[in-house]
Amino acid sequence: MKEDPFYRRVLVKLSGEALMGEQPAGIDPAVLDLIAGEIEDVLSLGVQVALVVGGGNILRGTVTSKEYGIDRASADYMGMLATVINSIALQEVLEDRGIMTRVQSAIEMRQIAEPYIRRRAIRHLEKGRVVIFAAGTGNPYFTTDTAAALRAMEIGADAIFKATKVDGVYDSDPATNPNAEKYDELSYLDVLRYNLKVMDSTAISLCMDNNLPIIVFNLMERGNIVRAVRGEKVGTIVRGVQDGVER
């Protein structure tokens, strides 16, 4: 008998950098296959899954603007197009496994993606399809973290799963500080107060205002998404006040 999932509808946020694997840039097919396998396992539990993916493996708007002197808004739009490339790649590997997938873009490009329509996205999820939200919010100056928070609330997700290259949130960079300490649980205010690198402040504020939990975990560890869906302790959970106590 399968254990009932703790979360019934989740939004998984993938960083573009995670898609690189060990490569310096681009998309690692092995990582795509790993993600597809994880999503397939989650769907088998009857959980509805939406995805938001970044574009940092191809181009990041803020960096491009500074390095090449491109107007920030134009650089951000270039970054949004990078997320569309990643979204189509994810759609292909998911559908190769027989998982019906829809890409919805915040910037209209009907030849390759549906326009973002909230009610249609929810209907896809109810039918067991995976929905990938591309092109961020469709507006410059907003990150894909903020897009993930916004879309999660629009579709009524129970939680955001932020899949990264590390196994949670630390008080400093574990790659450079061997004594860095991992948090098992944080409040939204702690994240903002100590400037912890979970998501940007706009995304954290949106989640805090709507009491939407964020679970940060290592994408590369097989089975982590399933464990998180079942409510097991995985990575770091960021959430708000419960029973009058800030958690």
Overall pLDDT metric: 93
Rounded to the nearest angstrom, the distance between the terminal CA atoms is: 33 Å
- List low-pLDDT spans: 243-247
Write out the CATH superfamily name. Answer: Acetylglutamate kinase-like
Overall number of strands: 13
The radius of gyration is 17 Å
Reading off the top of the CATH hierarchy, the class is best stated as: Alpha Beta
Percent of residues in helical segments? 25-40%
Strand content: 15-25%
Shape type: globular
Strand order of the largest sheet: 4-3-5-2-1-6-10-11-9
Count of helices? Answer: 8
Class derived from helix and strand content: alpha/beta
H/E element sequence:
EHEHHEEHEHEEEEHHEHEEE
The profile of the biggest β sheet is: 9 strands, mixed
The appropriate CATH architecture is: 3-Layer(aba) Sandwich
Q: List the domain count as a whole number.
A: 1
Q: Predict the CATH topology.
A: Carbamate kinase
Concise account of the structure shown:
The protein is α/β, with parallel strands linked by helices. The chain has helices at residues 29-43, 61-68, 72-96, 118-126, 144-154, 188-193, 201-209, 224-229; strands at 9-14, 48-53, 101-105, 114-115, 130-134, 159-164, 169-170, 182-183, 185-187, 214-218, 236-239, 241-242, 245-246. The chain is globular.
